[in-house]
Design brief:
With about 190 residues, the chain is α+β, with helices and mostly antiparallel strands. Helices cover about 15% and strands about 30% of the residues. Strands 1, 2, 3, 4, 5, 6, 7, 8, 9 and 10 form a ten-stranded antiparallel sheet that branches.
């Protein structure tokens, strides 16, 4: 198990590694609980797809906050997306929570296989911006994974810039709860 402060330290150390560590963690909002099955890393300084690439605005200011801070944005004017800030405070990076497996509080048949569906099911909205997602007393928060998961790696999806970067991660044993197309190669220690 990765304790909450160890998870925060990993997000602060490296956004890509932090995205991996979020797999298997539990996302909690009220009586809703789901196990995170898919994430994507976005590193602001050298990642053209990141919301903080080359710019600092009020809209993305939460990406510059303490690792674990919620960064919520509206995608295509339709879906609220749930992200966590990463890297040291003052340096922008984030992890998008792309998908999860529902475990409590959802009607049978609920699918969270995509960041838009996940955001809607968890009632994510702009009022959550700036919440500490690693504080168990927060309205919405993340509890660290209880055990390591086997990880698949692939390029990020739904973007046009820097899409070749292999910064999309999925729990290899939970592919029914991951966005399509699935990442296809196992993670290696290289």
């Amino acid at each position: 198990m990765l304790p909450t402060e160890s998870l925060r330290a990993e997000l602060e150390r490296d956004v890509v590694s932090g995205a991996r560590c979020l797999l298997g963690a539990t996302l909690v909002h009220g009586d809703h609980r789901a196990i995170i099955t898919e994430t994507e890393a976005y590193r602001g300084a050298d990642d053209e797809a990141a919301h903080a690439f080359g710019k600092t605005r009020m809209r993305n200011m939460h990406l510059f906050h303490r690792p674990g801070t919620a960064y919520i944005y509206l995608n295509y004017g339709i879906h609220w997306m749930l992200n966590l800030a990463a890297l040291p405070e003052g340096t922008a990076a984030g992890v998008l929570i792309r998908a999860a497996r529902p475990v409590a509080g959802f009607p049978e048949g609920t699918h969270l296989d995509g960041p838009g569906r996940l955001g809607k099911a968890f009632r994510v909205g702009p009022e959550m911006n700036g919440l500490d997602l690693l504080d168990p007393n927060s309205e919405i928060h993340i509890l660290p994974a209880q055990q390591p998961v086997k990880i698949l790696v692939g390029p990020r999806i739904g973007i046009t810039k820097s899409k070749e970067l292999p910064w999309r991660f999925a729990d290899a044993d939970q592919l029914d709860w991951v966005s399509r197309p699935h990442p296809s190669r196992p993670e290696t220690d290289e």
